[in-house]
Amino acid sequence: MEVSSDPDALLVTRILAGDESALGVVYDQHAGLVYGLARQVTRDEQIASDVTQEVFTYLWETPDRVDLSRGSLRTFLAVLAHRRAVDEVRRYARRSRAETASALPEAEDGPEAHVVAAAAQNWRTQHLSALLGRLPAEQRTAVRLAYYEGLTYVQVANALGIPEGTAKSRLRAALIRLRALLTDEAREAIS
Prior knowledge:
Blueprint: H1 7-16, H2 20-42, H3 45-61, H4 73-102, H5 111-133, H6 137-148, H7 153-160, H8 164-190
């Protein structure tokens, strides 16, 4: 077996051999990056901490998944952190939608409460559909696939027959546009 002089390869080899101190070295070198990326995506300190723990646990449990021919250990950890953080955001969004959809008024609220709740949900759905309708078609399609069907960037790219980077760009541009539209509506409502 050939011994590499690449520091990343040496650390991964040591982790493969079960050397916990090698994992500690990797953690010391890259935990700030992993946490920072997770924090930026999730905008939540606790979730970012959980994602950071998941990333280093994953590295410890499956070091054979690191392919240094595709990039550095830093890059591997950054990509993994970003994916895990996005997964957490999507999980949270799905839970929120499910909780909103299943939240029924109390029985003592009377039958009219069900009508009000259904009307409110219908209004939110129509309002979001109207905002999505103001996006360019390619952005709207990417948003529907990612957020309504729960597809990842890679799956969106495959479904649309476009590069992964293009899928990411379309989704990012769509979210920026939706944020601007919501901000404009809020300003109009206040004035």
